[in-house]
Design goal:
The complex is a heterodimer.
Chain A: H1 2-21, H2 23-43, H3 55-80, H4 84-93, H5 96-125, H6 133-160, H7 165-191, H8 200-225
Helix pairs in contact in A: 1-5, 2-3, 2-5, 3-5, 3-6, 3-7, 5-6, 5-8, 6-7, 6-8, 7-8
Chain B: H1 8-26, H2 42-69, H3 72-103, H4 112-133, H5 137-165, H6 179-182, H7 186-222
Helix pairs in contact in B: 1-7, 2-3, 2-5, 2-7, 3-4, 3-7, 4-5
Classes of the chains: A mainly alpha, B mainly alpha.
Transmembrane segments (chain A): 23-45, 57-76, 112-130, 137-159, 165-184, 205-225
InterPro entries (chain A): Cyt_c_biogenesis_CcmB (IPR003544)
Subcellular location (chain A): Membrane
Chain lengths: 227, 223
C-alpha cells in the first residue's frame, strides 16, 4: 500500500515537472519530426521511391529505427537530469521500488504519447501502406512500453556510471535488439494485414521480456540507487 | 572455496577431454547426408556453449553474492568467469562458423541462431566496456554486477528462446529436429555427454586460474 502511494505521488511529480517545462516532450517531438523529415527528403531524392518494390519493408523498418533513437534520447534523460541533491531527497522520502516504478510508468506514458504522435507525423510524410491500422497501432504501443521498461533500467545504470551517452547506447542496444526484432516482425504482419491470431506468439514473447525486465529492475534497483 | 585448490577434478577434466578427442576422431558415427564426417564437430561445437553457460552461470551467482556481501573476491570471481565465458563464446562461434561453411555453404548465413549469438556476444562485450568505464573499484563492482544479472536472462532469451520461434538452419530450431532426436546414436552420446562435463570443467579451471592471479594482484595492491 505504501509502495502504491509513494509511486503515485512520485508519478504525479514527474508529470507535473514535465508539464511545467515540457522539455523532454518538445525536445523528442522535434527530434522525431526532423528525423522523419530528413528521411523523407533523402529517400525521395530517388524518383519513384514510393512505388518501388521494397517500399513496405523500408517503411516499417525506418519507422522502428526512428522510434528506437527517439526513445533512447527521451529516456536517457530520465535519470540524468536529476541533480544529486534531489536524488538524495527522494531517497529520504521514498523506497527504491517506488522510484523505479514511477520512472517506468512515467516513461511508458511519455513514450506512448510520443509514438502516437510520431506515427501520425510519419504517415503524413510517408504514404500509408498499413493493411491493419488497429493492429499496427497496438504494436506501436507495445513497442513504446517495451522500450520504456528496458531503457529506464539501463539509463539508471548508465547515469551511475558517469552520465555519458555512449555508454547508454552500448549497454542498451544488445538488450533492445531481441525486442525490436519481434516488434518488426509483429508490425510487418499487421502491415500485410495478416490474420491476427498469428501475432499472439509475438505478444507473448514481448510480454515475457517485459516481465523479466521489470522484475529484474525492481530487484536490482535497490542495490543501484545508493552510492 | 576449497574446491578450486583441489586437483582431482582437473585431472578428470584433462583425461575426459583426451578421451573425447580420441573417441571423437576414431569412434563410429552415423553416415548422414550433407553432414558426413563433420558430425564429429558436435563433440567440440556444442561443449563450447556448455562451458560458456557454466561459467556465465557461476558469474551471475557471484554477482548476486557480491551485491549481498560486498566482498571484493566475489566480484573478481564474477569478472573472471565472464572473461572465460567470452573466450568460450568466441570458440563456440568459430567452431560453428567453420561447420556452417561446410554444411550451409557460408561462414555467416544470416541465420537467426548465429545473429542471436552475435548479439549476446555484444551484450557481454558491453559488460566488459562498462567495467572499463568506471574507475572507482567498489562502484565498478556494484554496477557491473547489476548489469551482469540484468544481461543473463536476456542472453538466455536470445540464444535459447528467440531462434526457436523462427525458421533456422540450426538443428533444434524453427521446427528443425534437434540432433539428439534423429541423427545421433548411442555411440555418439557416449562421447558427447562426457565432453559436456569435461569442457565445462576446463572452463572452470581456466576461470579459477585467472581468479587466483587476480586475487594475488589485488592483495599486492591493497597492501
Amino acid at each position: 500500500m505504501e509502495l502504491y502511494k509513494q509511486t503515485l505521488s512520485l508519478l504525479k511529480k514527474e508529470i507535473l515537472l514535465e508539464w511545467r517545462s515540457k522539455y523532454a516532450f518538445n525536445g523528442v517531438l522535434l527530434y522525431v519530426v526532423s528525423t522523419v523529415f530528413v528521411c523523407y527528403i533523402s529517400f525521395n531524392l530517388t524518383p519513384g521511391f514510393s512505388g518501388s518494390n521494397g517500399y513496405k519493408i523500408v517503411w516499417n523498418v525506418l519507422f522502428w529505427v526512428i522510434m528506437l533513437f527517439a526513445s533512447v534520447n527521451a529516456i536517457a534523460k530520465s535519470f540524468m537530469q536529476e541533480s544529486k541533491s534531489r536524488l538524495l531527497y527522494y531517497y529520504s522520502i521514498a523506497g527504491p521500488q517506488a522510484i523505479i516504478l514511477s520512472k517506468i510508468i512515467y516513461n511508458i506514458l511519455l513514450m506512448a504519447l510520443l509514438s502516437t504522435l510520431a506515427i501520425i507525423i510519419y504517415i503524413i510524410f510517408f504514404k500509408n501502406v498499413v493493411g491493419d491500422p488497429l493492429m499496427y497501432f497496438i504494436s506501436v504501443l507495445t513497442g513504446s512500453i517495451s522500450f520504456s521498461t528496458v531503457f529506464t533500467m539501463i539509463s539508471a545504470i548508465a547515469s551511475k556510471a558517469g552520465n555519458n551517452g555512449t555508454l547508454m547506447a552500448i549497454l542498451s542496444f544488445p538488450v533492445i535488439i531481441p525486442v525490436i526484432l519481434v516488434l518488426i516482425r509483429l508490425s510487418k504482419n499487421a502491415m500485410d494485414g495478416l490474420e491476427r491470431s498469428l501475432n499472439y506468439g509475438h505478444f507473448e514473447v514481448l510480454f515475457a521480456i517485459n516481465a523479466i525486465v521489470v522484475a529484474t529492475s525492481l530487484l536490482l534497483f535497490p542495490y543501484l540507487w545508493r552510492d | 572455496m576449497k574446491f578450486i585448490y583441489q586437483w582431482w577434478w582437473k585431472v578428470l577434466a584433462v583425461v575426459t577431454v583426451l578421451y573425447t578427442l580420441v573417441a571423437g576422431f576414431l569412434g563410429g558415427v552415423p553416415r548422414l547426408f550433407i553432414l558426413h564426417e563433420t558430425i564429429r564437430n558436435t563433440y567440440f561445437h556444442v561443449p563450447m556453449w556448455m562451458a560458456m553457460f557454466t561459467v556465465f552461470t557461476i558469474s551471475v551467482i557471484y554477482s548476486i553474492k557480491y551485491l549481498n556481501s560486498g566482498k571484493e573476491e566475489h566480484d573478481l570471481i564474477a569478472v573472471e568467469c565472464a572473461n572465460t565465458g567470452v573466450f568460450f563464446f568466441v570458440l563456440g562461434l568459430i567452431t560453428g562458423m567453420i561447420w556452417a561453411k561446410s554444411t550451409w555453404g557460408e561462414y555467416w548465413s544470416n541465420d537467426p541462431k548465429q545473429n542471436s549469438a552475435a548479439i549476446a556476444f555484444l551484450l557481454y562485450c558491453a559488460y566488459l566496456v562498462l567495467r572499463n568505464a568506471i574507475d572507482e573499484e567498489q562502484k565498478r563492482a556494484k554496477i557491473s554486477a547489476i548489469y551482469n544479472i540484468f544481461a543473463f536472462p536476456i542472453m538466455i532469451v536470445l540464444i535459447m528462446v528467440l531462434p526457436r520461434m523462427t525458421d533456422s538452419l540450426h538443428p533444434g530450431n524453427g521446427g528443425n529436429p534437434a540432433f539428439g532426436k534423429l541423427d545421433m546414436d548411442n555411440r555418439m552420446r557416449l562421447v558427447l555427454y562426457p565432453a559436456f562435463i569435461a569442457w565445462s570443467l576446463i572452463g572452470l579451471w581456466i576461470a579459477t586460474l585467472r581468479y587466483r592471479i587476480r586475487l594475488i594482484e589485488y592483495k599486492q595492491n591493497t597492501l
